[in-house]
Amino acid sequence: MQEKYIDENKQGEAYAIAEKEGNTKKLFLESYGCQMNFSDSEIVASILNEQGYNTTLKVEEADLILLNTCSIREKAEQTVRNRLSSFHHLKKSKPNLTVGVLGCMAERLKTKFLEEEHLVDLVVGPDAYRDLPNLLKETEGGRDAINVILSKDETYADINPVRLGGNGVTAFVTITRGCDNMCTFCVVPFTRGRERSRDPHSIINECKELWENGYKEITLLGQNVDSYLWYGGGPKKDFAKATEMQKLTAVHFAQLLEMVAKAVPEMRIRFATSNPQDMSLDVFRMMAKYPNICRYVHLPVQSGSDNMLKAMNRQHTRQEYLDLIKEAKNIVPDIAFSQDMIVGFCGETEEDHQDTLSLMREVEYDYGYMFAYSERPGTPAHKKMEDDIPADVKQRRLSEVIALQGELSRKRMASYVGKTHEILIEGTSKKNENQWKGRNSQNAVCVFDKQEGQKVGDLVNVFVYDNTQGTLIGRVEEKY
Ligand code: SAH
Ligand code: F3S
């Protein structure tokens, strides 16, 4: 299965080394939650590389421990709390060790962290990473330090991220930050602030540089990429105040996709995440026009019931969503979709739940990321609605949704069998060191026997002859 979200039970993976000659201090940096956090950690590592820190994978040798945290569900926060307490003994034996919390939990819990969790010396929100050098100076003086100010225009456009822990082939490129959508269940608009888009030129430059450095696939990242709008001004919500010239020359997401597709014509391009309400058909048209834009869209719907969609403040109906999928399939017949689903949202009836199952059957998603609703303090749902579905009902509905997605994934994977797919080699298969693993354009994972002369980063034609629920099994046809 795809690792879009990191398993909340797993610890955030400590990242590979970012080294700069002459640096003497050691940073242990762990990320939790969505891809955006992983991408942000690369910005943080870059900033701290300039401040004398190289990263380490050994927590015992760290001078600075930073956890880039996630608030999306209660479980995610609990994982981070447990991780923080595991540093207790280190902190005792190493008085100069600094422990910091970055990201969404920093934003949500603010000073509470410093007051209640005495293990933390530093709290930095997602828009304040440039301030890290100053904040660290404060902690060196023995004081606690905090900056959780959210910005209207910070995009870290000029900071060249240090690529951490990757395979040297696939990379994230952040294009928007924050979210203005206010889905009632979601904490992101509160922890990541207003939506703003990054200058397209800095995006293009980053993509070109990645290509020059051997990268073969990029994922354009944002909470809601389809809402991308660059007009040379600040947040998207101020677009109405833009000058005529700014309005005329504004760049929308489909245009940005085209610019990137042309700038790095052999680079595979993916993007995440899309919100159906902001998705324009032009995006699918670009996909049809440029073969290097992958035929895959992660298009969360959250529920198949109109009542729930309304309660969640999703700005579309079930039918509108299904129409969008239909149109997309018309424009790009070999397109694949994945979903995010929330079960057990406030007031969800058995009928609503059945609507979710029937919508899934209709769309036939390749994969899914499914969650039981977890109430988040401060969100509109927490303020105005009742989290009234019993835990056992949520769990049962979740199992049903997961079981159905399993069936659908197996069916979709089977539909790729008997055909040749272009696979980008990303690394050695975890299960068999004599096999490569990679993905096709539709994002399906494929494993196949290694052949001499092949290396990570190669695009190979693989004939798929079998499948499991989440993996295609193939053999190489020819190399090119
Ligand atoms: N646009 C974002 C979505 C962020 S949240 C992105 O880039 O992925 C990721 C998913 O977590 C959501 O699509 C939703 O399915 C789930 N989620 C968000 N808030 C939740 C909550 N309070 N309880 C359970 N799941 C939630
Ligand atoms: Fe959250 Fe909805 Fe934005 S799920 S990130 S508020 S699109």
Structure description:
The chain is an alpha/beta fold. The protein has helices at residues 35-49, 74-85, 88-93, 104-109, 111-116, 132-140, 188-192, 200-212, 244-248, 253-263, 281-289, 306-311, 318-331, 350-363, 380-384, 391-415, and strands at 25-31, 53-55, 64-69, 98-103, 122-124, 145-147, 170-174, 176-177, 196-197, 217-221, 229-230, 251-252, 268-272, 296-298, 336-343, 367-372, 420-428, 435-439, 445-449, 459-467, 471-479. The chain folds into three domains: 8-147, Methylthiotransferase, N-terminal domain (Rossmann fold, 3-Layer(aba) Sandwich), CATH 3.40.50.12160; 170-415, pyruvate-formate lyase- activating enzyme (Alpha-Beta Horseshoe); 417-476, Beta Barrel (OB fold (Dihydrolipoamide Acetyltransferase, E2P)). The chain contains 16 helices and 21 strands. The radius of gyration is 22 Å and the shape is globular. The two termini are 27 Å apart. The model is unreliable at 1-12 (pLDDT under 50). The structure holds S-adenosyl-L-homocysteine (SAH) and FE3-S4 cluster.
**Main sheet overview:** 6 strands, parallel
**Low-confidence parts, pLDDT < 50 over ≥5 residues?**
1-12
User: Reading side by side through the largest sheet, how are the strands ordered?
Assistant: 2-1-3-4-5-6
The CATH topology of the largest domain is what? Answer: pyruvate-formate lyase- activating enzyme
> What oligomeric arrangement do these chains adopt?
single chain
Subunit structure: Monomer.
Subcellular location: Cytoplasm
EC number: 2.8.4.3
Protein name: tRNA-2-methylthio-N(6)-dimethylallyladenosine synthase
